[in-house]
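// run 5 | inverse folding | seed 20
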């Protein structure tokens, strides 16, 4: 059993409790669950933090074998707009993410390629409590809104890296 004192588990539990409070409120709701959104102006998440470290020459990567579904911010905002305008989405919990499962290592390789860095990535184990795989089921949002992501990982990361490099 995971250590409930691990901060990563308390984060997940607080989200679950918040969802239960919303559901129990009796008010109309939509619980929107974003999955690994990235893009320009992002703060305190993997992509912007890795770019910032790589700019200083630090390309250490923790959890390199983990996989994630990455979604560009403009695709996310289009998904939310579709949900806001969907009466059938009221009373639902909806995942928003991508259908593409990518190793964190692959993501880091694309980032440093766009940054022009030709240096091997330092691979380290994931911190204790890290989830090895995050891949949302986006069937529900597709059926409610006909939304699908349109920005490729390559294209989204190129735009994101260019923005951060100009800062």
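// decoded
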């Amino acid at each position: 059993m995971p250590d409930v004192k691990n901060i990563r588990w308390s984060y997940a539990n607080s989200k679950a409790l918040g969802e239960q409070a919303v559901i129990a409120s009796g008010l109309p709701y939509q619980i929107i669950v974003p999955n690994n959104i990235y893009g320009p102006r992002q703060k305190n998440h993997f992509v912007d933090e890795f770019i910032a470290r790589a700019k200083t020459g630090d390309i250490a990567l923790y959890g390199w074998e983990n996989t994630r579904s990455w979604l560009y911010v403009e695709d996310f905002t289009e998904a939310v707009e579709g949900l806001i305008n969907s009466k059938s989405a009221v009373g639902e919990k909806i995942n928003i993410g991508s259908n593409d499962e990518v190793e964190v290592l692959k993501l880091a390789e694309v980032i440093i390629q766009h940054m022009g860095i030709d240096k091997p990535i330092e691979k380290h184990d994931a911190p204790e409590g890290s989830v090895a795989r995050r891949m949302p089921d986006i069937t529900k949002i597709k059926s409610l809104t006909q939304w699908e992501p349109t920005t490729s990982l390559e294209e989204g990361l190129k735009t994101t890296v260019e923005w951060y490099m100009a800062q």
